[in-house]
Amino acid sequence: MVKNIFPLGFPWQTQDPYLFCVYHLDHYPIGNEEMGPKASLEGRNLGNDFTLKDGWRMYHGQTIPGFPAHPHRGFETITIVNKGFCDHSDSLGAAGRFGQGDVQWMTAGSGVQHSEMFPLLNTDKANTLELFQIWLNLPKVNKFAEPHFKMLWHEDIPILTLDTAVVKIIAGNFNNTIALEPAPNSWASDNNNQVAIWNIHIEKNGSVTLPIADKELNRTLYFYDGDYITIDDETVTPNHGIEVDASTEIRIKAIGKEAHILVLQGKPINEPVAKYGPFVMNTNEELQKSMDEFRLTQFGGWPWPYPDNVHDKEKGRFAKYPDGTLIEK
Predict the structure, then answer these.
(1) Span 44-57, pLDDT tens digits
(2) Considering 156, 177, 197, which residue would you say is the last residue of a domain?
């Protein structure tokens, strides 16, 4: 049953236990030797470039697009990079380059700084970036969990091929196909919370039926690419979110071309939320203390030479963890 349909803004509207979801689609040109765009940056508000000019944005980057060093506390970031690459560096000394379908799951917990830059590695062709970033809240008991990140490499992420649809299962369970383990202190690590993140591609004039789950769950569908979809005889155009009753059968049909949908589901945490930018706590007093602590400690400082740190151009996909463990793909 459809409960609500709403237009998608920037960022997308979410329901508890989610705090934030944003979709980036940037058609970057060929890259230069510094991994930035081989194009003029004139006329852009560098440092805060969120206007889609010529099909792409620099965000907070000055020479390379992305988000230089910034703090987080009290929640998790789940970054899905379907196209292009993201370079991660953090205050724990951890680093990584991921993309082409990889997912990074980071628990900010008690506090971490990180940067997320988008190196344009192709110097002979365009550098398209397609990325979702989702903020999943942490319950009070885990607000100060030790910071942690893990990689869900695309080679390992379960992909379920149905008759006329493909479901990438980033979190949760879809028709008994179970996702990889999330971060250990996540709300998603308890199966009773039924957290699910599915990226669904439905063929032209095809359909998919979502599994039935508990009524108490929040389930939101984000239709971000296609012509039309139908749900419960409702016709929905792209760039709309649809809140549905998870306990009823939901059949989605793509009308016209292929439809792309992101699904976020989970049991609500049902705790007070006090947030300011990158800090999410339960009370305003905790929020103020968090900001004060960051000013004093910088959450461990910044061990990298630049706030917009990127890795060597020739480096492949990799993850280096705080304990020194290195995984290369």
Answers:
(1) 999 999 999 999 99
(2) 156
